[in-house]
Amino acid sequence: MISINNLSVEFSAKSLFDNINYVINDKDKIALVGKNGAGKSTMLKIIAGLQTPTSGSVAVPEGVSIGYLPQHMITPDEVTVIQEVRKAFSKIDEMQRRMDAMNAELAERTDYESESYQRLIEQMTALSDRISITASDNCEAEMEKTLMGLGFVRSDFNRQTSEFSGGWRMRIELAKLLLTKPDVLLLDEPTNHLDIESIQWLENFLLTKAKAVVLVSHDRAFIDNVTNRTIEISLGKIYDYSVNYSKYIELRKERIEQQMRAYNNQQKQIADTEAFIERFRYKATKAVQVQSRMKQLAKIDRIEVDEVDTSHLNLKFPPAPRSGDYPIIADNVGKAYGDHQVFDHATFTIKRGEKVAFVGKNGEGKSTLVKCIMGEIPFTGSLKIGHNVKIGYFAQNQASMLDETLTVFDTIDHVAVGDIRTKIRDILGAFMFGGEASDKKVKVLSGGERTRLAMIKLLLEPVNFLILDEPTNHLDMKTKDILKQAIKDFDGTVILVSHDREFLDGLVEKVYEFGGGQVKEMLGGIYDFLEKKRIASLRELELSKSVETNTLKAKPENTKSAEESKQTSPAKKLSYAEQREREKILRKAKKKVEEAEAEIARIEATLKSIEDEIANNSGDQDIYNRHAETTKALENAMSIWELASMELDELQS
Hints:
The chain is of the alpha/beta class. The chain contains 20 helices and 18 strands. α5 (139-149) packs antiparallel against α6 (166-179). The model is unreliable at 309-313 and 555-573 (pLDDT under 50).
C-alpha cells in the first residue's frame, strides 16, 4: 500500500537512514523498534509527510489516508472536548461538499461522450465509495464510545479542553485520530498517558477495527498483543521480521550471533592482510603481491555489528535499613476536593517487604493517595507510617526537581555511598549515560534522560520504602528491565503506580484498585487481577441480563404491545443486506474467540508436557527457561482471548 523507496536521511553529515526500502501492506500491524536516537520518530514523520528525507521517497497511492499521533501536540483551549473530537468528521463534510460540487457540474454538462466527462464519473464513483466507507450513521454514538473507551466520562464531554492535563489532551487527539478511520495509523508512544483499561481498549480497537498500523512503543505487552510484524532500525539499516516483538527478540539474538561470527572472520582476514603488507612492504620481490593485498584491503566492505550491551550488570543497591513490621496502616482514609470525593474509607495494611501496585483509571486517586502518604496534602481518616520507615519517593515530576547546574556524574556521586561509588560509571552506562554522556549538565538533558537520572538517584539512596509513581514513562525496554530487576532485588517495601502490565508482571504480589471512590485490595499479580476483573465484568453483564429478563416476566401485560410495537417500528428492523452483514461480523468475532481458545488449549498442552518432564527429573536449565516462556505465551494468549470475547459480547448484546 505505502512504499518506502531508497530512503536516506542525514543530520550534520551523520547518516540516520541509509538507502532503506520496505512496504507497508493493507493489514500490517508493525512495531517500529530500535534504541533511542535510531530514528523511529523521524521515520513516522517522513511517512506522515511532515519531514523530507535527504534522498529517496515515500509512495502513497491516491486516496490512501494517513493518521499520525505524535508524542507531543497542542490542543485548542477555546472548545469543549466533544466539539474538538467532532472535528474528526470534518473530512467527511469536505468530501460531501466536493460530491455536491461534482453533482452540480454533472447536471450542467452535456458532453456525455468526452473523456473529461468519463473522468468526472469515475471521480464521483471513487469519492462516493470513500464517503460510504468513512461515514457513519451515528457519529455521536461513535464519539461517545471512543471517548469512554479512552477513559473519559460523559460529564467530561462538555468541559473545556483547557481544563485537562497534557496526558488527557493526548487522549482527545487519539480519539479524533481513531474516529477518522485512516488507512494507515502512525502512533508514537500512544500508551504513555493511558491507564491499563484504556490500553486494553486501544489494543482491542487496533486489532479489530484499525487497518494498517505502524507504532512506536516501549510497552512490551501492548506491542506483543497488537503487532504481527517488527521492523528494527539499527545503524542506518532496517531488519524486517514477520513476527511480534517477543519472537523478534529471539530472532534478533540469532542475527547478532551470525553478525559477530562474520565480523570476527573479517577482522582476522584484515589483520592477516595488514600483517603481510607490513612484513613485505619494503621487499622489491614482493612489491606486486603487496600492491595486490592493499587493493584487496581497500575493496573490503567492512561489516558493522549492532551495538549490544554485554556487561550484564546486576545492580546491587545498599541494603534497606530494617523498618517496623507494618510500614503503612491506613484506616478510613479519604480525600475530597470541594464537592468531589476522590476516594473514601480506604482501609488497608502494607507489610514490610511487600511489593504492591496501585492501578485504576487516571483521576481515580492513585497519585492522590501517594501524596497523602507523603504528607503533601491533608486528608480524613488515619494514616500511620511505621517505625523507622525511610521513604524514597519518585513523583511523576521528579525529573524536573534535579539540580540543573550539576553534571550527570556529580548528581549520582552526591547520593552514592560505600562500594557503590566505585561503580558509578558502570551504573550510568547501564542507564545509557556511558562515556561523554556522564559529563553532560542536567540542564541539557531530554525529558527521558532526566527521568532515568532521577530514577538512578532515588535507587541509590539508603531507604527501606520505595514509592514509584509512573516510573516507566519515557524509559525504553532495556532500561525498564534493569529497573525491574533492581526493584525485585530490593529487600524493602514498594508501592508502584503504573499502567505497564509487563513491568508489573512478576514484580507485585498484591494490587489495589482505585475506582468509584473506593480502594479495593486484591491478592495476586497484575494478570491475576485483570482476569478477576474480567470475570467480575462478565458477572455484572449476566446480572444485568437477568434483571432485564425478570423485569419482562414481571410485566406480561405489556408483552403484546411490545411485540406489536416491534413489528410496526421500521427503525428497529434490519434490511436483508444489513442482517447478512451483521451475521458476517458475528461469525468473524466467533471465529476469533474459537481460534484464541484453540491456541490456549495448544499452549496448555505444551505446558503440561514440560511440567511432566520436570516432574520426572529429566529437565536441565533449558527446560525451566522453556517453562517460563510457555507460561508467558499462555498469559498473552489469555489476553488475546479476553479481547476477542469482549468484542463478541459487545456485538451479541
